[in-house]
């Protein structure tokens, strides 16, 4: 315990007095044997957390912090211990491969940076790339990895570009100059990699004139809002739902989407940054949509399992959990009777589509809010 408490960020673990409030709200405990209180007790009785599998199972969703009377902050504790473990070479192989790809290519998928803006060819609207047209722009669209490279993410990026065009937003992207902001890598213990990426990102941003940054990635949004200012880098930053919500009347949503829709709150947009209204404003503006909430929503929303490096640890976690967190969440969505599960985080479409198949809920369609809005403008 003393070794963990000595780490910057690890000191709050010793504040735990064992009330257990964190355990029933921990998403990992619902599909495994986990929870911050259990971790604390195991460390007290001899668990070497620096070498234990339990270190990598936390998704840093912050639901435990929401209910903790002593403010034991696992969102700081786990990354601090992970950083020490990474420095000692103790890191799951799946995660190590992602770190190597990120270091080499500037993205977690290991894709060629020159292909980062290939999705724009099928957007149906002009998408300005600042490398080619460096004039000042109002909104810098920071696309991030999964909207840049994943086929389903690219569809959402194309839809969002059409929406911004319809709303009259002056926007542009960085194209091949963009690198991942790397907040998930930071939370998974690679603080040094995060800082190196930040140096590159800040250098590129300094080349161009823009008023605001908009990103679809709650993890990148979180880093730009909370982590970058710690290093002296401050920007006006919006999640894409925050950009569109005040402009929804400009979209002329005239095509009905007659469907029952439920919405999954991303941990890093909701609990971490307090934004619950903008996504719902957009969903409820779509003609024909009936929004139905899951039992776990808003501040108590369940986690998709992708945060804190979990996006890349499904194979590792399979040895410890009865089912993936995304599968548990899809079951909750299906219980509402919804036909569509709406999301607004790039990690979630692919995670939930896979989970819908593996749980026998193929009839549940997973769509990004940008895709739903795009459907409503025809």
């Amino acid at each position: 315990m003393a070794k963990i408490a000595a780490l910057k960020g690890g000191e709050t673990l010793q504040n735990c007095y064992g009330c257990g409030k964190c355990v029933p709200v921990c998403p990992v405990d619902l599909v495994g044997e986990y929870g911050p209180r259990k971790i604390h007790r195991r460390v007290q009785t001899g668990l070497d957390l620096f070498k234990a599998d339990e270190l990598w199972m936390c998704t840093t969703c912050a639901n435990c912090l929401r209910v903790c009377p002593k403010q034991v902050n696992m969102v700081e504790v786990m990354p601090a211990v992970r950083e020490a473990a990474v420095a000692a070479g103790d890191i799951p192989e799946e995660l190590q491969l992602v770190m190597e790809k990120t270091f080499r290519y500037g993205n977690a998928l290991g894709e060629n940076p020159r292909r980062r803006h290939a999705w724009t060819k099928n957007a149906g609207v002009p998408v300005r790339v600042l490398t080619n047209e460096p004039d000042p722009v109002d909104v810098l669209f920071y696309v991030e990895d999964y909207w840049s490279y994943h086929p389903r993410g690219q569809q959402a990026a194309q839809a969002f570009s059409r929406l911004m065009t319809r709303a009259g937003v002056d926007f542009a992207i960085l194209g091949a100059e963009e690198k991942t902001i790397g907040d998930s890598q930071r939370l998974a213990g690679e603080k040094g990699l995060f800082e190196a990426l930040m140096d590159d990102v800040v250098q590129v941003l300094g080349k161009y004139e823009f008023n605001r940054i908009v990103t679809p990635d709650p993890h990148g949004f979180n880093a730009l809002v909370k982590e970058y200012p710690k290093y002296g880098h401050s920007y006006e930053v919006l999640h894409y739902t925050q950009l569109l919500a005040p402009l929804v009347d400009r979209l002329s949503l005239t095509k009905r989407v007659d469907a029952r829709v439920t919405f999954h709150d991303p941990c890093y947009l909701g609990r971490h940054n307090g934004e619950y209204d903008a996504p719902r404003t957009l969903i409820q503006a779509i003609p024909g949509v009936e929004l139905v909430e899951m039992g776990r929503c808003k501040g108590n929303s369940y986690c998709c399992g992708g945060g804190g490096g979990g996006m890349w640890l499904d194979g590792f976690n399979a040895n410890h959990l009865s089912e993936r967190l995304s599968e548990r969440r899809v079951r909750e969505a299906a219980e509402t009777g919804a036909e569509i599960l709406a999301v607004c985080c790039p990690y979630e479409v692919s995670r939930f589509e896979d989970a819908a198949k593996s749980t026998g809920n193929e009839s549940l369609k997973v769509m990004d809010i940008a895709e739903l809005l795009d459907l409503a403008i025809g």
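The domain at 94-245 is CATH 3.40.50 (Rossmann fold). Residues 151-166 form the longest helix (16 residues).
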